[in-house]
Sequence to fold (221 residues):
Amino acid sequence: MFKRFKFFTIFYLIIVVLNIVVLYYIKDYRMVVKPMIMGSLIGFYTGNVVKQSPVFLLGMVFALIGDIFLLFDNELFFIIGLGGFLLMQVFYTAEFFKDRADSIKQAVLPIVIVYIVGLIFLILMWPGLGDLKWPVMMYAIAITTMVSSAFLRNKDVIWYNAVIWGVLLFLLSDAWLGMAKFGVVNSSLDSVIVMLSYMAAQYLIVRGITEREVPVPMEVK
Fold:
């Protein structure tokens, strides 16, 4: 699985480690290392895919915007960051629909579970949302729809399962971030859980879409 693009994978792991180290020890450098997450993935995708998808590229760019604005402890910037990720989810959803299966029977149960889980997280956060109730509700609908659209893809698409794990980790990351911000959970590991699941999620999603577009050389097969 990781034999291909191994140098980028190692480079990305270094970015992951840097983000965790900076998170706890040198917070002043978060503005430098956090944008490297999506910046590196955008470079990876554009450097390997000849016929790039404008839809998917826009999704990654909005994720980068979301990353940057969520660095600031400011409610307005939080809303802008939330908006960036909401748009990312819309564009990722559109990209996933390109590979949708002819039948949705295989996806009905997972999709129902995803929406139930999303609803549970929303109910847990609801009392602490205040004026953000409706923006967060819209965001919850967008992210559960994105996750559901990944399950609707044809299972024969290369790296199908990796993308599924990616969107599930993204759901975990955002749900945990929301619960930590609005007082549902409070742990010293909150930031680590959010960042590790987010970085793994974006890697798996971007890698999966890249694998779909780049033929595998015979020696790699």
In short: The mean pLDDT is 90. The chain has one domain: 6-213. Residues 6-213 form one domain. The first helix runs from residue 6 to 24.
